[in-house]
Automatic annotation (TrEMBL):
Species classification: Bacteria, Pseudomonadati, Pseudomonadota, Gammaproteobacteria, Oceanospirillales
Annotated site location: Transition state stabilizer: E156
UniProt GO BP: pyridoxine biosynthetic process
Enzyme Commission code: 2.6.99.2
Organism: Gynuella sunshinyii YC6258
Entry protein name: Pyridoxine 5'-phosphate synthase
Amino acid sequence: MPTALSVNLNKIALLRNSRGRDYPSILKFGRRALQNGARGLTIHPRPDQRHARYQDAYDLRALLEEFQEAELNIEGNPIDEFMDMVLDVGPDQCTLVPDQPGQITSDHGYDLDMDTETLKPVIEKLKRFDVRVSLFMDPVPENMAKARAIGADRVELYTESWAQAFMTPQEDQVYEQFRLSVLAAREAGLEVNAGHDLDLQNLAMFLTIPDIAEVSIGHALTVEALESGYDSVIRQYAAICSLSMESRPNKDF
Ligand SMILES: CC(=O)[C@@H](O)[C@H](O)COP(=O)(O)O
Ligand SMILES: NCC(=O)COP(=O)(O)O
C-alpha cells in the first residue's frame, strides 16, 4: 500500500485566525487537498487554539463525509478538553503528542518510561470509541515495543532530525535510526506514521524506508504552495495596477 499523505491544515488556520474571518477557509483548502491526492487531513489544535480550533475538527469531520476513503487525524496533548472533543468528533485517528501549553511547535516524542501510566487509560478510552491511536515518538528502536505494550496501534516518528540531517554528513546515520525504528515498530506489531518538517526536498529519500503508512505534512507544504504561486499572483496584481485609466473597468454610479 503506498504511503498516505495527510495534509496538516494548522498553518492555513493560523493565517485565518490572524484576521478573524473565515479566510483562508480550512474547509476549502482541506477539500482541495483531498481533490488533489491527499488521503487524509490533519489538525493539531493546541490548548490556546492559535492554529486549528476545536470547532474545525467538527467541520472537517462533516467535510470528510464527502470523501469516503479519506481519514481525519487529530493530533494533540490529551488534556481533558481535547479528549472530550476527540471523543465527540470521532476521528479515524488520534495522534497523541506530549506538547506543553504555549509550545511553539512539537519538539519531542513520548518518554514511555515516564508517561505510560497517564497514557494507558487515554489509549484505552480512545480505542473503546473506535479511534485508532498513534503515539508521537522519537526514532529510538528500543522504544517501539513499549508503545505497542501500552496499546498503541501506530507510532508517528518525529522527523525533525531527518529534516535537519538531510543533505548533511549526518544523513546516513539518521536515516539508519529511522529505518531501524520502523523495523522495530513493525516487528512489535505497530503501523508507522511519520511527520514534522517533511518537505518536497527531503520526503522522497525518507520514503525509501519501506512500510511507512502515512506522512502528515503542513508547515513546509504551506510555504511551498506560497512559493509556487507567489510570482504569478504578484504579476496579476501588477498587471491590474498598470492598466491605463481607459482600460480599467467602468464604474457606473
Ligand atoms: C505533531 C507534529 O509533528 C507537529 O508537527 C504538528 O502537528 C505541527 O503543528 P504546527 O504546525 O502547529 O507546529
Ligand atoms: N504530524 C506532523 C504534522 O502534522 C505536520 O508537521 P509539519 O509538516 O507542519 O512540520
